[in-house]
Design a protein that fits this description.
By secondary structure, the chain is an alpha+beta fold. It has 3 domains: 100 residues, Pseudouridine synthase, CATH 3.30.2350.10; 103 residues, 2-Layer Sandwich (Pseudouridine synthase); 58 residues, PUA domain (Archaeosine Trna-guanine Transglycosylase, Chain: A, domain 4). The chain is built from 7 helices and 17 strands.
Length: 320
């Protein structure tokens, strides 16, 4: 996450912006570079992103501003969907087209039916070894720093889930597929594994993230749209930033509970509350005040009380 830092004299332009932008990240930018560009355009004092995309990759990158930065962890743990193009016959050190070629192999003769059957074998729960070119850390240092120095260290295989893996197209040198997968899945590694199962080597030629749960089917916003909004007057114009979603859109799968002014105040103060109409089920709920403002996440206990799990508004110490 990034605080309200900037060039000398620029601090005054930062403002409190709360919400989520589903950026369509362009190729060639790191996730952090894309975040910083959007943050400057919005003038947001606080920002973070959920789910890093490699520079080669495009597609949905949830950008969280202000109170929404507290939802980044939730989004990082969500299911994701990708469309990928896998070049066959050559491997690279990064697992994608940005790396140096490290090996070559003969191209297999592929029939669509046989290739689809190979992909089907990857579905379900499995283990995957993270790549060296990743942001995972060893003794405080990202693995990609070690990889760039030619070092390789053991990595522990991690459990992932491939929910769906669909063949889109196949040619002698290229295989295209879509995948819906759990958090922690490296599609670059999956591509290498698919190539190996086909009897050859491979690396990703292109990768696009289609959606991040719970934003399946939601439209994305291009950097150019944010730039046009900023040039048209930004916050002094007639419209809010394009695609700025409310913070609670990160939690649409949770049930809702509404509180009166008194209980909303108590909740802001971190106190347990017992509404007259208590939630019917235990678990995590979305809490709203009497005006419909999202307060945060609460846990409904067996005693029919609500306990603060995470507030998404500033606290208050005044009487209602």
């Amino acid at each position: 996450m990034t605080g309200a830092a900037g060039p000398a004299g620029a601090r005054a332009r930062w403002r409190e912006v709360d919400g989520i932008v589903l950026l369509d990240k362009p190729t060639g930018l790191t996730s952090t570079q894309a975040l910083q560009r959007a943050r400057r355009l919005l003038g947001a004092a606080k920002a973070g992103h959920a789910g890093t995309l490699d520079p080669l990759a495009t597609g949905m990158l949830p950008l969280c501003f202000g109170q929404a930065t507290k939802a980044c962890g939730q989004l990082l743990g969500a299911r994701k969907a990708y469309r990928a193009a896998l070049t066959l016959g050559a491997s690279t050190d990064t697992g994608d087209a940005e790396g140096a070629v490290t090996g070559r192999a003969a191209l297999p003769v592929l029939e669509p039916g046989a290739a689809a059957a190979v992909l089907a074998g990857f579905c379900g729960e499995r283990l995957q070894v993270p790549p060296m070119y990743s942001a995972l850390k060893r003794e405080g240092r990202p693995l990609y720093e070690l990889a760039r120095r030619g070092e390789e260290v053991p990595r522990e295989a991690r459990p992932i889930r491939i929910e769906r893996l669909e063949l889109l197209a196949v040619s002698p040198t290229l295989l295209e597929f879509e995948v819906v997968c759990s958090k922690g899945t490296y599609v670059r590694v999956l591509g290498e594994e698919i190539a190996a199962a086909l009897g050859t080597l491979g690396h990703l030629a292109a990768l696009r993230r289609l959606w991040v749960e719970p934003f399946e089917g939601e439209p994305m916003v291009a950097l150019g749209e944010l730039e046009a909004w900023a040039q048209a007057g930004a916050w002094e114009g007639a419209s809010p930033p394009p695609g700025l979603l409310a913070v609670d859109r990160a939690f649409t799968g949770l049930p809702r509970v509404d509180l009166d002014a008194r209980l909303s105040l108590y909740l802001r103060q971190g106190r347990e509350v017992e509404p007259a109409s208590s939630p019917s089920e235990t678990g995590v709920w979305r809490a709203y005040d009497e005006a419909g403002q999202f307060l945060g996440l609460v846990e409904a206990t067996a005693e029919r009380r609500l306990r603060v799990r995470r507030l998404f508004v500033a606290g208050s110490g005044t009487s209602p």
